[in-house]
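To the wet lab folks,

You asked to see what we're planning to order before we commit. Fair enough. Below is the target structure as tokens, and below that is the sequence we designed to fit it. If anything looks off to you, flag it before the synthesis order goes out.
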């Protein structure tokens, strides 16, 4: 069993493979009294999907348990690619295959690696702390190893769609709620689901949500950043 500091909470887990490798930057001195103890059920996942490598089963299982238990700390998963620029985090969410990772990679091409960092390329955590939402990198970052052990104020969320032209506009809360609900984990447990809805409601009150049609041109990064940040640079 090892101890980690992930999304601001102390986590104990005994793991291997991808979860162990990607968890190293988050490891801290061992504590016997963590906030969260991860329970891995990778064997069950492996039995259900024997074609999937046990490393991936372990990685998926530990991540699922972490995000479920993070709810107790006003935190949740938002399936997105998170970019950090000028000290703020911007999350780009979309259905798989739409191009959220491609869009954040355009930030690096347009603005340069000295100004842009990828906080988490698939499963950043967001937490409501003292009335402010923060985005965190976590070891669970999808197929890539693009994640950073950082806490950054969340400045905006953008829902992406493919389009021939780059167009972005604010998304009303009523329409944003359903779209965001599709990009987080949902639970059969009513108490947990109520907590998810409470966090989404708070998010919509405190963080601007945008919708964008975009292409693969690096100019798409400029269009989204200037709108979401209010800066022309």
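Sequence we intend to order:
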């Amino acid at each position: 069993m090892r101890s980690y500091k992930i999304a601001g909470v102390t986590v104990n887990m005994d793991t291997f493979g991808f979860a162990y490798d990607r968890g190293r930057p988050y490891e801290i001195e061992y504590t016997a009294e963590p906030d969260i103890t991860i329970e891995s059920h990778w064997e069950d996942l492996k039995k259900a999907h024997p074609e999937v490598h046990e490393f991936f089963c372990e990685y998926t299982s530990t991540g699922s348990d972490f995000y479920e238990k993070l709810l107790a700390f006003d935190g949740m998963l938002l399936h997105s690619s998170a970019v950090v620029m000028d000290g703020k985090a911007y999350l780009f969410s979309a259905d798989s295959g739409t191009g959220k990772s491609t869009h954040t990679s355009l930030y690096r091409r347009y603005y340069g690696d000295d100004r842009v960092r990828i906080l988490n390329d698939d499963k950043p955590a967001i937490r409501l702390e003292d009335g402010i939402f923060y985005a965190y990198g976590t070891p669970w970052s999808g197929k890539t190893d693009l994640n950073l052990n950082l806490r950054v104020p969340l400045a905006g969320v953008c829902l992406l769609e493919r389009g021939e032209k780059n167009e972005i506009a604010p998304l009303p809360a009523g329409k944003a709620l359903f779209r965001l609900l599709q990009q987080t984990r949902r639970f059969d447990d009513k108490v947990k689901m109520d907590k998810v809805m409470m966090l989404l409601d708070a998010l919509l009150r405190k963080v601007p949500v945008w919708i964008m049609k975009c292409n693969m041109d690096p100019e798409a990064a400029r269009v989204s950043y200037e709108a979401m940040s209010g800066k022309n640079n």
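Structural context that might help your review: The chain has two domains: 2-73, 75-229. The CA atoms of residues 78 and 175 lie 17 Å apart.

Thanks,
Computational group
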